[in-house]
Amino acid sequence: MTSTAGKLGRAVRDGGVPPVLAAAFLWGTVGPAEILAGTSASPVAIGACRMLVGGFVLGLFTARWAGVRTLWHRQARWWMLVSVLVTAAFQACFLEAVDRSGAALATAVTFGTVPVVTGICGRVLNGERLSGRWACGTVCAISGIALLLVPAGGGPGGGGPADSTGGVLLGLIAGASFGVYISATKRLGDRGADTTAAAPASVLCAGILVSPWVFAHPDGLAEPRTLILVGWLALATTALGYLLFTRGVVRISGATTGTLSLAEPLVATVLGIALLGERLSRSGMAGAVLLLGGLVLVSAPARRSGRPAGGRGEAVAAGLPGDAGGHGESHVSRTGREEGHASRAARTGAREET
Q1: Strand, coil or helix: what is 277?
Q2: DSSP secondary structure of 17-70
Q3: pTM of this prediction?
């Protein structure tokens, strides 16, 4: 306990904790902001506008041409394509899930799914060992999601946000997409790609991929409330949120980042209940507690014996930006330091070839 508190204190002094917490808070406002705006525009069209504007602005501050070129080298291009596809799926499905089932439920289901998928991807792709803590956390998360599916009032039409099974299913897809995104970002880093440039590139390309939806469903996009919503989502939760996260995560461990990222579903749940009048059934409340408990089990720092892993290598391997960035980082490979050196060596070789 003392060791964990000491690590957290050092992280605060080093300046990593405040920006990561600020990013998590901003991302936690996505769902409540969408509902509070009450716009008639399609959630998918809003998501496309968010990605286009936010990705472009983020790229102005973080991306460099040399880094962008590393994303499309032969070793990295397929994982970059995966990153773009799952980013598009996450944005579209998450906003649609919020529209159907409410901010609190959609956020809880989405980010309760992320650690499960990230752990499975780590096992399949990198041969990472799945710990007993991960197994317990996974069982809690799945049980929590099952309880959240129970309608308020004990039957269909109970009036609570858990009445929308379609929204929950979309939340599951969004969570799975983000879990794959984290693993794809780690693979990009392993293959010498610049993960700082990968974030704006993924968001912007995903926006272009989804942009036909804007032309097919333009209704409501010109409303003042829609423009304000898109401005908030693009500039605050995407550009500023990703910028804060990428600057903070390199100063703290992946495990600490995963714990801090729990602020996102908590913020969404509190705002949804306090400002939007959303409610959960008793089983839904129990499910939310189980789900968040599973997240704590998966993300809490484990005791380590021997030399600690390299901070920057572990953080970069965790998968830098993501709409709730850092979820599932406790499954990062223990060889983060070596992968960081290999990544830098690969980028040096790429520059020499160019």
Answers
A1: coil
A2: HHHHHHHHHHHHTHHHHHHHHT--S-HHHHHHHHHHHHHHHHHHHH--HHHHHH
A3: 0.71
